[in-house]
Request: fold
Amino acid sequence: MTDPHPAATSTEVDALIIGGGPAGLSAALNLGRARASVVVVDAGRPRNAATLRSHGFLTRDGVSPLELRKLARAELTAYPNVHVIERAVVSGLRPHPGTDGLRFVAGINARTPRTPPAVAARSVLVATGLRETLPTIPNLRSYYGMSIFSCAACDAWELQDRPLALIGETPDLAARARLIARWTDRLTVFTNGADVVSTVEEAELAASGITVERSGIADLEGERGAVTGVRLGNGRVVAVEGGFVRPVWHPALDFLGAVEAERDPDGHLVVDGSGRTTMPGLYAAGDAAAPGPQQLIVAAGQGARAAAVLVHDLVGVQTAH
Reply:
């Protein structure tokens, strides 16, 4: 990033929020109501963009994730102290060791005009979520978010009692299978050739009526987003009517290169129960914080809690949080 001095920066705020998903927007709403000056930087590329319906969010069960974000941004317009920079990314974040109360300076790359090149902030909330890598299966993306999902708690209700697939190449695949078996007694686990289910685990799954298929997957079959079968490398097709995939998730935290905050082994920011990281003034909520992927309503709740604690920290109020 460029290295602007706060004096040359066109925007100075109490809180910079990096990420415009449920965690970031919930935090922005609550910070706005606390009369904090806030800038939200939103790249506009949510991980769940392929999902048509989001579930488990009280009063919004079944809402489109994009519609949820639209509603949230509309609510923020009531707070003139909250500014959302859309289609923008933080190119880098560095600590600012000054005496003016500004702890961080963030470089901003934006496609919108009149966007400040940098924002200086007293506090920063990281709510950038995750990037995900799916197993290499040619047409998997054609079904992802429509009949193949990654979150059982979010989408298994709509698939209950159907023959389902669980596709993955991660060591927790057997545990995921036991969870998904709550919603169906016709589940096939596909390891796509990866050695991630032990023989002991396979026997335990078989005792519960769950089949393990270790062959590589050639492709998925179906039309218009509705999967109907998993075609194996030997040509055999296993009929299914939906399923789940286990992605590999990566925290989207490249911009934190100059910020020394503790991470867990998977790269998530380590936070306390209130969203504080190990660096004063830096907070995290949602999927960016350990332990990782969560439902939208959980992320929104974390954003609200982090906002409350951030305000208390700004004014030096000791709380039980």
The helical segments are 22-33, 65-76, 140-143, 152-155, 173-180, 199-207, 296-315. The chain has seven helices and 17 strands. Residues 296-315 form the longest helix (20 residues).
